Amino acid sequence: MADFLSAFSIQSWLESCPQGYLEETEYGHLAGEKEPESILENDDFLEEATRTTVQLVVGERAALAASSGLINCAPDDPSKIFLATQTLDEARHVEIFTQRLYDLGVKKEDLESTLANFANPNLVKFAEVLLEKVDKRDFVAGVVGQNIVLEGMAFSVFEMIHASSKEINPKFAHTLAGTIADERRHVGFGENRIGSLIEANPERKSDIQKMQQEMTHHMLRTFSDSFQENEALVEDVHQNADPDAGPAMYQGVDLAKADSEEMQAVLTNTVLGEFKTRLARIGLEYLPPAA
Length: 291
Ligand SMILES: [Fe+2]
Ligand SMILES: [Fe+2]
Prior knowledge:
With 291 residues, this protein is mostly helical. It has a single domain, classed as Ribonucleotide Reductase, subunit A (Orthogonal Bundle), CATH 1.10.620. The protein is 75% helix and 3% strand. The strands form two sheets. It has a two-stranded antiparallel sheet. Strand 3 and strand 4 form a beta hairpin. The structure holds fe (ii) ion (FE2) (2 copies).
């Protein structure tokens, strides 16, 4: 518990996060960095960037609601303290991705309608499954749903977008880099804290695995919607790509050359692989979603 206390304390959060990798950032990126003209001047690319960012805001709003909601049902103070830092992290993620929507030209008065318009309904269902557990003050299920499933997914999605943005959009890549570092901490908490609670409450296993199965089902549908919507655009991006740009490697796949189907496959395999490993570490079995 001593290691747990110091690794997930506010003190270590202060040192590593606001006084560490976020120092001198502005909305997550370096001051003065802008979205590239290639996105701002192309209606299709702009719509795609907006659509992608909307999913990030939807996911982060769910993470904010879940982490803040879990504070008051956490069984011990160290967990409450960690969740308070996580709540601030998630609020920051909501803020910086919302700011990106403004940077892409969304007007403040149009924020909610833009979110409603572009939010993937399957992602909304994914979030609802989690928030239902939080509403019932179910700490163990809530932490598995939030810190293993939602964040395991977010972590891999962010890393993939980061890989594809690094060369062509340093501003967005920087925004994502800080978020990835935050998510790594959140997933670490889930694994560290929840294993012993599952062990103490083995009767909860099947119920929690069912939640994971349901969330995975909605997640995979979200992925397939997103990559199908993207198919033509990916072609377009490849054709207009700077021939001197280097590869954009993610899990052994060059995203600068991969088609939409290959991208979906590599993301799906990565996320499901992560779920299996992390769930096994906390004593749960991964259940594949029903077809
Ligand atoms: Fe987040
Ligand atoms: Fe998070």
